[in-house]
Amino acid sequence: MANVAVVGSQWGDEGKGKIVDWLSERADVVVRFQGGHNAGHTLVIDGVTYKLSLLPSGVVREGKLSVIGNGVVVDPWALLDEIGRLREQGVKIGPERLRIAENATLILPLHRELDEIRENSNSGTKIGTTKRGIGPAYEDKVGRRALRVMDLMDLDALADKVEKMLAHHNALRRGLGQEPVDGEKLTAQLKEIAPEILPYMDSVWRLLDGERRKGSRILFEGAQGTLLDIDHGTYPYVTSSNTVSAQAATGSGMGPAAIDTVLGITKAYTTRVGEGPFPTELDDEVGQRLGERGREFGVVTGRKRRCGWFDAVLVRQAIKTSGITDVALTKLDVLDGFDEVKICTGYRLDGQVLDYLPGGAALQARVEPVYETLEGWQETTFGARTWGELPAQAIKYVRHIEELIECPVTLLSTSPEREDTILMKDPFED
Ligand code: IMP
Question: Which pairing describes strands 65-68 and 98-101: parallel, antiparallel, or unpaired?
Fold first, then answer.
């Protein structure tokens, strides 16, 4: 039996929600290990749509343990709102079903404000963030001044910790022409919310060690995508956490040997939200058609996603940096009906052809995609559940992608419905 990490192999929005839900039915424990409520996972179960941001996808299923690991940044107010929304949909959420790492970092209102101020100002680099305070909270974590979930337990020491953090933030805010944050008010807000959060608090590394020794199946649920990784992504147009699979270990308190299979969720074309280089982006009617057919709007911010052809160079790179062992290909049906489809197989830069994305935003913005053109298919792939139902050209497209990215496609998703899946290999089987 294997533990599985699920990560995105592009810029997020690859359709992880459906696959994670499908896997979480067979997992015992589902763990989030990075990011926060910048993620948006849509699950459709028995015709009911659930929208999750911070909570692991396992929470909508009874009998599963959902864990928010230490690598996640937790906005306690957003967490309680999300729990409240799911309860209204009839999902029972309590500490027997959800645990939060005591050493997870808190996102505070001042982080959200700072994210927004920076994004709305013309100085500095506009990243196109989700304005949820993710980056500023991670900055405080690395700056060793962050508040963590366990700080909500020691209320006598809380005011002092808040003041130490504000020594940094209020200096920064004054420089940005903002009102300083009132430490007493913030401490009072945190004291008020503490009793609602603390019942979920746990020593997650110990909990997961126990589960592992019991032989539980653990599913690590990644958010965003490998190209948004703070180290391996298109820096600085990235999120502020490591999104590669190695973070599943660090962000949950387990060693790398705890992860057996790394399933890379990969869209059959490419999308990106926010700013930053995107070599295969299409500004024409093909891009528009991909966006419309693929309903490419963000779950969290409602922003329109940028669309383009499949970029085999980027995905191959993501497979290496994220240690992806198996690919789940999603949204193939969006390509139905095109006369021809293109795949990017290299980049032209200053008279040379590269088989990797060069480091640095300036070079990344200048690369020109080199395409291979394949014949399209007119028949539908929507809802297919066997290879036999797929048109020959669609099979050829998938097989060619496998060759280019140097990784097998072991799962094909052909609609948002969970049953519309072609499975070649069970990720939980060693
Ligand atoms: P942040 O994570 O809010 O700091 O945003 C940084 C970058 O990551 C921006 O380009 C966002 O659009 C992108 N991003 C963050 N979360 C997601 C996601 O769940 N899907 C896709 N893009 C995301």
Answer: parallel
Tell me the best of 32, 73, 239, 306 to mutate to test the pocket of ligand 1, counting ligand atoms within 8 Å of each CB and taking the most. 239
Neighbour tally for 393: CB within 10 Å: 18
One CATH from 1.20.1730.10, 1.10.300.10, 3.30.70.890, 2.102.10.10 for 105-197: 1.10.300.10
For the question of residue 111 being annotated catalytic, the response is no
Give 252 Cα–ligand 1 centroid separation in angstroms.
21
Q: Quick one: CATH architecture of 4-102+203-258?
A: 3-Layer(aba) Sandwich (3.40)
Query: pLDDT tens digit string along 23-46?
Result: 998 999 999 999 999 988 888 787
Strand pairing of 421-423 and 409-413? antiparallel
Asked whether 409 and 424 are in contact (CB, 8 A), the reply is yes
The CA 129 to ligand 1 mean position distance, Å, reads 5
173-215: pLDDT as tens digits: 999 999 999 999 999 999 999 999 999 999 999 999 999 999 9
Q: Read off the pLDDT band of 142 (50, 70, 90).
A: very high
Contact 414, 382 (CB under 8 A): yes
**What ranges do the domains of the chain cover?**
4-102+203-258, 105-197, 266-423
Query: Is residue 13 among the annotated active site residues?
Result: yes
- 135 CB under 6 A from ligand 1? yes
For residue 134, the CA-to-ligand 1 centroid distance in Å is: 9
Name the catalytic one among 37, 41, 111, 169.
Answer: 41
Tell me if 228 CB under 6 Å of ligand 1: yes
The per-residue pLDDT for 150 is: 98
Q: List the structure tokens of 52.
A: 């999750």
| 248 in Cβ contact with 259 (< 8 Å) | yes
The CATH code of domain 266-423 reads 3.90.170.10
